[in-house]
Predict the structure.
Amino acid sequence: MRQKHIAFFLEPAYGHIIPTLGIALELIRRGQRVSYAVTSEFAPAIHRIGAHAVIFKPLQTRSKVLAEVLPNPSMIDDRASALNELVRERTEDSLPQLEAQYHDNKPDLVIQDECEDIAGRSLALKWDIPHIRLFPTIIPPNLERSFADGQLVLVPVPRFFQKRPEHLGRHFKFIGFIPEGR
């Protein structure tokens, strides 16, 4: 059987990457090839489990995102529009970097989240390869319908922590936090 290449396109932040290292470690143990698109600070953790770190430099938008989210909660529509614009800017910056990095090494499967950019999903669609969404936090009740029915969504936060777990379909798989070696 041919070795598959699974690529993780996650927000380069501890709460997004670290909970998936146990999954990646198990995939590697089963003979799969795993890569992570990460910033250089995460490369040691990725290399430690035997995965390949694909280093890129995302546009830094976290301070802009927080500036849009925290003040003025009554301006929800304006904030959503501003946040969507930041996601678009960051995705446009990340896409050419990641496409160049993966040009000769396209994955067979993409595991992606959509925190501050959607480059992973965009590349999976462009390359016509399957993709799985990772949602690393509690799923807000108003967002549960925004997930495409049928697309697998991995959720490291256990089901009992979710606000309305009965409204989440079967395509949500609550895997819990899976640290290395578990």
Notes: DSSP finds six helices and seven strands in the chain. Residues 76-102 form the longest helix (27 residues).
